[in-house]
Amino acid sequence: LVDALSDQGALAIERVRLVEDLDRAERAAETDRLRQALLTSISHDLRTPLAAVLGAATTLRDLDDALDGTEKADLLATVIAESERLNRFIANLLDMTRLEAGAVVPNVALHDVAEVADTALRRMDKILAAHRVAVEIAKDLPPLRLDPVLFEQVLVNLLDNAGKYAPEGSTIRLLGRREGMRVLIEVLDEGDGLPEADRERVFDTFYRVAKADSVRAGTGLGLPISRGFIEAMGGTVTGANRRDRAGAAFTIALPVPAEPARTASERAA
Ligand code: ADP
Predict the structure, then answer these.
(1) In what order do the strands lie in the sheet with 171-179?
(2) Which of 48, 52, 215, 266 lies in the 20 to 30 Å Cα band around 178?
(3) Rg, C-alpha atoms of the chain
(4) Could you tell me if the CB of 116 is within 6 A of ligand 1?
(5) What Cα–Cα distance (Å) separates residue 48 from each residue in 52, 56, 84, 206, 252?
(6) Which ligand 1 atom sits nearest the alpha carbon of residue 211?
(7) H-assigned helices in 166-263
(8) Which residue in 158, 170, 155, 146 sits closest to 235, CA to CA?
(9) Where do the Histidine kinase domain residues begin and end (predicted)?
């Protein structure tokens, strides 16, 4: 009997091993598929702007004499805009790699949200010129523990998306308010919003909501990077649709820092 049992035991172990091997093979195949999709996507994102730069530069060289001043300026503008796009994409890829390697260590200190938001808005003025921007940040917000460089980048990403996915002339709202022991910073737009099934997936690396028009240049990296940065500062970022009207609503929540313990000399004062 003991022999029979141990035979069965051996069989069961063998079966577990087979299943594990199968699992491993499936996981490896899935990883391979993902890596392949990733490479295709990255190659496409690099080649599209590069092709535009090459095209414009070649035209400038070959047709120099035949071009008037405006045409030359347009071609140069294309070279610059597409190079900037490449630059952003590569910066995003590096951010993503650093996040995945756990190499993003926020440099946290107490900062005024309104001030950081101001810097972000100034960086965005060209892109946002096509929209109305309404900023409503409560005056009495407590300073928050954040890394201003990372936080500003997150605001830029969210505002940039609002600019890209909402129609020209519409209003983008940047709100800041306290809710209990958290401060909420929201970016609201008047675009199509997020399909219900995509509300979480938009935070996946390289995920982009399927759209008929692929004119809106994007990489699918802005939101996952934003979430990574904010989580590294102890906060959260979520995406939803607005309740008051059509449009997307992205919300950053950061904890209100605990009152600093007063030092003995402060207590004595
Ligand atoms: P990117 O904008 O470069 O594609 P993101 O990671 O910033 O990458 O966003 C991922 C996807 O989420 C976008 O491709 C878009 O489909 C969707 N999305 C992001 N922001 C908005 C928004 N404000 N309104 C509608 N859809 C959005």
Answers:
(1) 132-137, 171-179, 182-188, 248-255, 236-241
(2) 266
(3) 25
(4) no
(5) 7, 13, 13, 16, 32
(6) 16
(7) 222-232
(8) 146
(9) 41-258
90: closest CA among 202, 219, 206? 219
How would you classify the pairing of strands 248-255 and 182-188?
antiparallel
Structural tokens at position 165: 């996915």
Contact 142, 182 (CB under 8 A): no
CA of 169 relative to ligand 1 center, distance in Å: 19
Which of 133, 202, 241 for mutating ligand 1's site (highest number of atoms within 8 Å of CB)? 202
Nearest Cα residue to 172 out of 248, 240, 116: 248
Rounded CA separation 203/144 (Å): 24
pLDDT tens for the chain, residues 1 to 269: 556 666 777 777 787 777 778 788 887 887 777 777 777 777 877 888 899 999 999 999 999 899 999 999 999 999 998 998 888 888 888 888 888 888 888 999 999 999 999 999 998 887 788 999 999 999 999 999 999 999 999 999 999 999 999 999 999 999 999 999 999 999 999 999 999 999 999 999 888 887 644 455 677 889 999 999 999 999 999 999 999 999 999 999 999 998 765 655 666 65
The token pair that represents 90 in the structure block: 């590569």
Give the span between the Cα atoms of 157 and 154, in whole angstroms: 5
SS3 77: helix
Q: Supply the pLDDT for residue 66.
A: 92
Q: Of 42, 156, 165, which is best to mutate to test ligand 1, by the most ligand atoms within 8 angstroms of its C-beta?
A: 165
Among left, alpha and beta (phi > 0; psi -120 to 50; other), residue 132 is beta
Does residue 186 line the site of ligand 1, with CB under 6 A? no
